């Protein structure tokens, strides 16, 4: 049966239920002078009288029901008051019914099993706070916290304390707007200060100007379990020295991640936590390590101090946002050499390791290897000995820089460096239908960079490249062990890209791609790219035959015209079909400078321009 509450109607989700007493009446029908009152801060309450045992939790069967707190159990705890002893020493026993999975805190201390109460007490369970008062306690409305409860811990604080959440602060009227606006106007200048040694003193001075009645302002931080220190401070009387932080108040505010105002000796004090902006999860209230402490000596009603709390909270939120922005920028600067903008954008403002987890995808993989590296390295080491290693590393680094620049320029991810080779991929962390085109574009540009004539002293002089591009299923992301990992790509598509790079030598071309990449590039119609077939080959140590093609730049950037490519495609088609005389005839008018034709001419000559009887159109390539 639902009855009335002792302190007005309950908010949504909080109901006080009355239990039958010994006379057949209900607990809510009597005055509370003979029982303990359990009140939800800002909500309903019940009275536990001598000989009664009442329950608190989310269940509708509980005498005090808090249905809007998902962290409470159906029956979270029971409160039992023994029969009156007649000596005025009434007690209340709290029994934890959760087996310690979501504990209860009594004045900030965890309840183990049960706890006997003798005096006014504060309880915290889940996100809800309770005030428990004995029959002889006087009502003090200022101890009721405004707004919904959302913390799971509070320290032991004096009476008259007010705790503020976002909703209650939003309802506080702004006082002294001119003074506060003037202080806030100085905040951007303070935030632009490069380090805390200069920023924190300026911040304290700003707060002192904005809170007219404050005697001291300090930045406090956690330095150990239950220990706090003043990092910086400012006061009206500098000769008085730095304030001593009230540990109980600071602990309660930082642990609850809420602003708390309390009487302090002959004056007042409040602490506002400096917390990262909410990450979007509802009800998130994690403890923080820093806060702003403001103290004053004049006796002013707590309601007037609320406007000061609102002002300081605004400053703390802006400070936290600025700190977070700076931290994210530093993280981005650290990640930028490893990840392209496309991946950084996908990770968003709050990099989550889960976003880098390995995932299956359709990837276009590029494998690029230096040609001439072995000969160049031998020459340098012969001339300079071990002293030439630095020069060799400088040249290789310059070559890898060309590769990674083109890869990043095309939106790819550099997955690994293998000595003088680079592995890159497209299609992760988000699916990209243009991944084959982007990979092809990077491959052609890399080949063009290394094809340019360079003077003898140039670090890239004497280097050429072979590039293989394959498109297909892969696993990409953070791959490795718990101790060491890298962002890379794994699977047969990556292996095949390496095999295709190995065909660049026998086929006498700088860039070789598989059929999936060639078809995607041809369908895209990118004017900067062209594709020509090279034949159907079976690379060394592979069972599968693959139709391979060369990727080339536009005719304006190549010695081969579109007509040249069409003629070569006709020769390849005739060769594959077994019409080798026709293939030889077409190649007669092909430009001699195109080295790719040597691959076909050698095979035509070996068999006197006649296809073998068992010819199936597949060329076996056992060399590299």
TrEMBL record:
Disordered: annotated segments: 1-37
Domain of life: Bacteria
SUPFAM superfamilies: Nucleotide cyclase, SMAD/FHA domain
Domain Guanylate cyclase: 364-501
Limits of the FHA domain: 54-111
Record Pfam families: Guanylate_cyc
Gene3D superfamilies linked to this entry: 2.60.200.20, Nucleotide cyclase
Compositional bias of kind Basic and acidic residues: 23-34
InterPro entries in UniProt: A/G_cyclase (IPR001054), Adenylyl/Guanylyl_Cyclase_3/4 (IPR050697), FHA_dom (IPR000253), Nucleotide_cyclase (IPR029787), SMAD_FHA_dom_sf (IPR008984)
Protein name: Adenylate cyclase
Species of provenance: Alienimonas chondri
Highest classification ranks of the organism: Bacteria, Pseudomonadati, Planctomycetota, Planctomycetia, Planctomycetales
């Amino acid at each position: 049966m639902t009855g009335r509450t002792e302190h007005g109607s309950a908010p949504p989700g909080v109901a006080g239920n009355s239990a039958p007493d010994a006379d057949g009446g209900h607990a809510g029908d009597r005055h509370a002078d003979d029982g303990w009152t359990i009140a939800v801060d800002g909500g309903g309450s019940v009275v536990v009288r001598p000989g009664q045992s009442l329950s608190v939790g989310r269940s509708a069967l509980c005498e005090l029901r808090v249905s809007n707190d998902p962290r409470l159990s159906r029956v979270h705890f029971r409160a039992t008051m023994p029969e009156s002893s007649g000596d005025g020493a009434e007690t209340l026993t709290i029994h934890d019914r959760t087996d310690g999975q979501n504990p209860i805190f009594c004045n900030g201390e965890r309840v183990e099993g049960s706890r006997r109460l003798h005096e006014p007490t504060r309880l915290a369970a889940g996100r809800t706070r309770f005030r428990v008062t004995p029959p002889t306690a006087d009502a003090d409305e200022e101890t009721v916290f405004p707004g919904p409860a959302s913390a799971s811990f509070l320290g032991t604080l004096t009476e008259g304390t007010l705790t503020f959440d976002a909703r209650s602060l939003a309802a506080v009227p702004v006082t002294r707007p001119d003074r506060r606006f003037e202080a806030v106007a100085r905040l951007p200048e303070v935030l632009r200060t490069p380090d805390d040694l200069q920023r924190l003193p300026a911040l304290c001075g700003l707060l002192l100007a904005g809170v007219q009645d404050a005697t001291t302002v300090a930045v406090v931080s956690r330095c150990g379990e239950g220990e706090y220190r003043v990092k910086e401070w400012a006061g009206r009387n500098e000769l008085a020295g730095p304030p001593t932080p009230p540990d109980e108040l600071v602990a309660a505010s930082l642990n609850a991640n809420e602003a708390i105002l309390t009487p302090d000796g002959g004056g007042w004090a409040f602490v506002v936590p400096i917390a990262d902006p909410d990450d979007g999860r509802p009800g998130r209230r994690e403890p923080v390590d820093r806060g702003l402490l403001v103290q004053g000596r004049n006796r002013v009603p707590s309601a007037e101090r609320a406007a000061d709390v609102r002002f300081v909270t605004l400053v703390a939120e802006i400070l936290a946002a600025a700190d977070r922005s700076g931290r994210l920028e530093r993280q981005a600067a650290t990640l930028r050499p490893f990840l392209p903008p496309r991946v950084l954008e996908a990770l968003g403002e709050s990099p989550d390791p889960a976003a880098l987890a390995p995932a299956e995808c359709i990837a276009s993989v590029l494998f690029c290897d230096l040609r001439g590296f072995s000969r160049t390295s031998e020459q340098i080491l012969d001339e300079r000995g071990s002293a030439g290693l630095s020069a060799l590393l400088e040249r290789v680094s310059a070559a890898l820089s060309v590769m990674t620049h083109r890869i990043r320029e095309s939106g790819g991810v550099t997955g690994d460096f293998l000595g003088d080779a680079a592995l890159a991929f497209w299609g992760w962390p988000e699916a990209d239908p243009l991944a084959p085109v982007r990979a092809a574009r990077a491959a052609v540009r890399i080949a063009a960079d290394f094809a340019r004539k360079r003077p003898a002293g140039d670090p890239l002089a004497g280097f050429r490249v072979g590039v293989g591009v394959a498109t297909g299923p892969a696993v990409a992301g953070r791959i490795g062990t718990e101790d060491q990992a890298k962002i890379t790509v794994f699977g047969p598509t990556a292996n095949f890209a390496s095999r295709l790079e190995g065909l660049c030598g026998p086929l006498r071309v700088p860039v070789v791609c598989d059929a999936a990449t060639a078809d995607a590039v041809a369908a895209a119609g990118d004017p900067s790219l062209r594709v020509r077939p090279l034949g159907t080959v079976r690379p060394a140590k592979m069972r599968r035959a693959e139709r391979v093609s060369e990727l080339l730049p536009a005719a304006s950037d190549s010695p081969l015209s579109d007509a040249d490519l069409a003629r070569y495609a006709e020769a390849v088609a005739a060769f594959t079909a077994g019409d080798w005389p026709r293939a030889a005839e077409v190649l007669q008018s092909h430009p001699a400078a195109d080295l790719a034709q040597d691959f076909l001419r050698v095979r035509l000559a070996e068999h006197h321009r006649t296809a073998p009887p068992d010819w199936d159109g597949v060329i076996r390539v056992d060399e590299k």
